[in-house]
Amino acid sequence: MEHWICITCGTQFTESEQPPRDCPICLDPRQYIGYEGQQWTTLHALQQSAQNIFQEHETGLWGIGTDPPFAIKQRALLLQAEQGNILWDCISLLDDKTANRVERLGGIKAIAISHPHYYSSMVEWAERFNAPIYLHEADKQWVMRPSERIIYWSGETQTLQDGITLQRLGGHFAGGTVLHRAATAGKQALLLSGDIIQVVADRNFVSFMFSYPNLIPLPAAEVARIRAIVEQYDFERLYGAWFHTIVAKDAKNAVLRSADRYIQALERPLA
């Protein structure tokens, strides 16, 4: 019996003797089946072919990604905090070397994930670190490996600890979530966004989509709704889903002007 992992999206499934016939997450119009068809691997096989790398983005914030890149190629973020570290988003590969490095950084008190494309091997991580997983209940149908460790929160906000809040933005997924860390002594406020808010090639801007690989936009009204929520928060930097997707300064204004540009592009041609 294996917990099979979809090679295209990196999602780990509940235990079975044979791989599932298909991956519902990849069949959804926000994702896709790979050019070579539905393919599967296992955590053990991944441990033999890849390793995880760590990068300190800033004091107290570490990126953890897989080399060579796997599935959607995202990296997780380990946010060090006084009341316990938080793993933001997740990756498929977990091995002893990674776990030992995370333990040296203080372990994991809780896991929170922006949306189903990054659920990956979240249960493996939760079991290894004895941590709960916080997912918005609107995306419950996309959980391919159920676990008692999953806490489905509802409503618009969920406090993880003092100064650290999950905010439902929706958009890309109904339960699409970002994490806000308020400013503290010596630390500026941050927004961790996955690709609910997507950092684009010009990192002075971001964007918003229903599907990124299939280029399906969000309606202007939905982007305006997201903008109104983000406007309530202060943050200097925004971290997206990959090592390079960072808005390094004035990130709140970058999100607001990007939303304005997006809406304008849908309603009338850009000059």
How do the strands and helices of this protein lay out in sequence?
Blueprint: E1 5-6, H1 24-27, E2 40-41, H2 43-49, E3 51-58, E4 61-67, E5 76-79, E6 86-88, H3 96-104, E7 110-112, H4 122-129, E8 133-136, E9 150-153, E10 157-161, E11 164-168, E12 177-181, E13 190-194, E14 198-199, E15 206-207, E16 209-211, E17 216-217, H5 220-230, E18 237-240, E19 246-247, H6 251-267
Parallel strand pairs: 6-7, 7-8, 8-9, 13-18
Antiparallel strand pairs: 1-2, 3-4, 4-5, 5-6, 10-11, 11-12, 12-13, 14-15, 16-17, 18-19
Helix pairs in contact: 5-6
Would you give an account of this structure?
This protein has 271 residues and is α+β, with helices and mostly antiparallel strands. The protein has one domain: Ribonuclease Z/Hydroxyacylglutathione hydrolase-like (Metallo-beta-lactamase, Chain A, 4-Layer Sandwich), CATH 3.60.15. It is built from six helices and 19 strands. The strands form five sheets. The protein has a seven-stranded mixed sheet with strand order 3-4-5-6-7-8-9. The protein has a six-stranded mixed sheet with strand order 10-11-12-13-18-19, with helices on one face. Strands 1-2 form a two-stranded antiparallel sheet. A hairpin with a 6-residue loop joins strand 14 and strand 15. The protein is globular, with a radius of gyration of 18 Å. The N and C termini lie far apart (58 Å).
